[in-house]
Structures are given as C-alpha cells and as structure tokens.
Records
---
Amino acid sequence: MALDVALCEECNPLGLKQPATTQVHAIAAGGIVLFVLFLAIVGRLALGGIGPFTGQVRGVALATGGLEVTVAVTNAGSTASSTTCRVVQASRAVGGPGQLLQTPNVPAGQTIEFTALLSVFGGRLVDLAVDCQSP
C-alpha cells in the first residue's frame, strides 16, 4: 500500500489505496511554511539589538595607492557587531563611485574610529561621505 495506506486511517476514512494529491501537497506546503517561520524567528533572535549604525568621515589624506580615510562608526544598538559602510564622494553621493568598507567590531552603544585605504577615488583629495548599513 502507498504511503502507509494513503497517509493514515483517520485522514483516509474511505480507505483509498492512493493518497490524494492535495493531501501530499498540503503536507509539503505546510512543512515549507513552518520552516520559513522557523528561519524568520531564528533570524530575528540572531539580529536583535544590532544597530542602527551611523558613520562620519573624520579625516582624509593622500596615501600611496589612493586616499587614507578615517571613519567613526557608532553602534546605537544593544549588541556588539560589525557592519558595512559605503564611502562616496560627497558631491556625488547618488550614482557616483564608492567603496565598501567592513568595520571592526563596534561595541554596543559606543563609537570606534578606524582608518582604511580607498583606491576608487585616485590620488586626489575629495570630500567624502559615509553611509553605514543596519540589519
């Protein structure tokens, strides 16, 4: 008999030898929905308390291979984490060139400063702006 007598006696009161396709598909769809809900809950617990992050350019200097930028990043959340910041030319914040930076770990409720080398802007000083992502 197929699938334990068409799933179960309680689900199959007529004693059909094959399960109804709606029964099988409903079980599969239900499993998928439950798994997506499980992932949403786990994701929420894992990311809770992280950010929002704000960034500020503290200094720009010429360096071999590009510009050396000092960025201050503040974590306003209750959990320490790192984030990704995009540094762009201030006058061309939308549609202009930019470079992504991965920050070091930022403690909860604190600000850190770090320095990075940017190659995308060439060897000329430009005003820069930074935008840090929050989860």
Note: Strands lie at 53-63, 66-75, 84-89, 98-102, 111-118, 128-132.
---
Amino acid sequence: MDIKQIQDLIRFVSKSGVNEVSLEQKDFKITIKTNQEPTVVHATIPAPASAPAAATAAPALAAAPAPAAVADTSHYLTIKSPMIGTFYRSASPDKPLFVNVGDEVESGTVVCIIEAMKLFNEIESEVSGRIVKILVDNASPVEYDQPLFLVEPI
C-alpha cells in the first residue's frame, strides 16, 4: 500500500463517520481511529433462495438501547496530551502504573509517558486533584491536545 492509498483511506474514514477501520494485508497492517461519535450500522444479509421461508424471516431487531446517560464532566479538569505519540501508563511493563483512578495528583506529578520518535517523554500533571477517569488505553496512539485524564479538583 502506498502513501496515496493511505491518504485516500484516511479521507474516506473521516467522511464516512466510522470510528475505527483496520486493514491487514500480507506484510502490512494499518488501523485508523477517529474521535467522532460512534456510528451504528445495521446490515441484513439475504438468505439463500433455497432456504425455507421460516429461515428467511429476519429476526426482530431488539429495540436500540437508550444512549447511556452522559455524565456531566464539566466540573472536572482535563489533562491533555502535549504531543502526538504512544501513551503508556508505566515506565515499562514490569514497573508500577504512574496513576490509577482515585489517586491524588499535584501539579508536577508524572501521570504517564508518551513515546514520540523513540523518545519517552514524562507527562506531568498541570492540575491538582483526584484522577476520576483514564480516557486512553495503555499503548494506544494519542494526538496533540487529546484528553488523557479527567481530574476532580480537591
């Protein structure tokens, strides 16, 4: 896959409204993720013509679940990524996590590491409070200014 095809794929994903697309070929794998709201797509595959009528009846779709109540996060402070890179919650797999939900942090406390171009950058909290939610999975790519943690001021 060349760079033009990758750029076309990125444009397609951004216009389509999907959150994530993974493509794997013989010696190449790419995953493209967006920060858009999830789009739910339902598809019905027609049954073969020789199947009995009872088998061709589509099962009734369960009522779409009501969207989860969106928690009011306006009173929380956000620790955001200062760079593009890969988010890590600990210095190495055998080391303890920098912070967990419920931990109290102060300004200057190291909360994670972001690897960018083979450099491991310690990210320090600019706020004081209690970690309420960790918004990024370990070893996931992050973008500039992407929220990483929600912090409840104390």
Note: Residues 3-33 form one domain.
